[in-house]
Amino acid sequence: ELFGSVEPLLPSLREDGVAVWVLGRGPYPPGALALQELLDAASEELQPENVWEPRDMNETCLYIFTSGTTGLPKAARVSHLKSIMCLGFYELVGASSRDVVYLALPLYHMAGSLLGIVGCLGIGATCVLKEKFSASQFWDECRAEGVTVFQYIGELCRYLVNQPQRPGERQHGLRLAVGSGLSPDVWRSFQRRFGPIRIVETYGMSEGNVTLFNYTG
User: Fold this and answer.
1) Based on the domain organization, do 139 and 191 belong to the same domain?
2) Mean pLDDT of the chain
3) pTM
4) pLDDT score recorded for residue 175
5) Is residue 206, in this structure, part of any structural domain at all?
6) Is residue 75 within 8 Å of residue 195, measured between CB atoms?
């Protein structure tokens, strides 16, 4: 559904040697490769390790495009090693395979894709993946899905504490909230209003090599 936005750029992309892959059957004009037919034809047998195993774990695995706070979005290189390290994220903050993680962060950023999805894979946890965050429906969804862990960015918690109070908003199974950018006033309001939920605040950057965790609360 996004191909129409890219199609006018195909000639210039071809001149620059940029490949365009589309997750669909096509047909597409020259310069765009339809992946669905290739996926359908692919064998389910795993290829030998020397085909897919990176020669060096510090080689580029993927690029994460930053939000462009100081200009246009910039591609941050993420190595295979850093991607693999994200498998341990939820274990570091105290989650386990018994948890159900609520994730409504965009998957084109590191927090949603690598820490969220890859982190759930790392511990074998269930992930409730939401296309769009809704502060008014959040607690009902937590109860319906049995959510125990919530991954946030700071403003999501602010949206929740700014909602009108309603009955039953402390009747939930949420025990852990983990994320970045939670201000002290919202932190205190969140726990005072919704119960003694453990909060683990983290700080890191897609292009950085150090991450901080506030384990002590």
Assistant:
1) yes
2) 91
3) 0.79
4) 97
5) yes
6) no
- Residue 195 and residue 99 in one domain: yes
**Within this chain, do residues 94 and 198 fall inside the same structural domain, yes or no?**
yes
Supply the range of the domain harboring residue 143: 87-213
Position 61 pLDDT exceeds 80: yes
Domain identity same for 33 and 105: no
Q: Is residue 15 part of a domain?
A: yes
How would you write the chain as a 3-class SS string? CCHHHHHHHHHHHHHCCCCEEECCCCCCCCCEEEHHHHHHHCCCCCCCHHHHCCCCCCCEEEEEECCCCCCCCCEEEEEHHHHHHHHHHHHHHCCCCCCEEEECCCCCCHHHHHHHHHHHHHHCCEEEECCCCCCCCHHHHHHHHCCCEEEEEHHHHHHHHCCCCCCCCCCCCCCEEEEECCCHHHHHHHHHHHCCCEEEEEECCCCCCCCEEECCC
The four Cα atoms 184, 71, 31, 46 give a dihedral, to 10 degrees, of -30
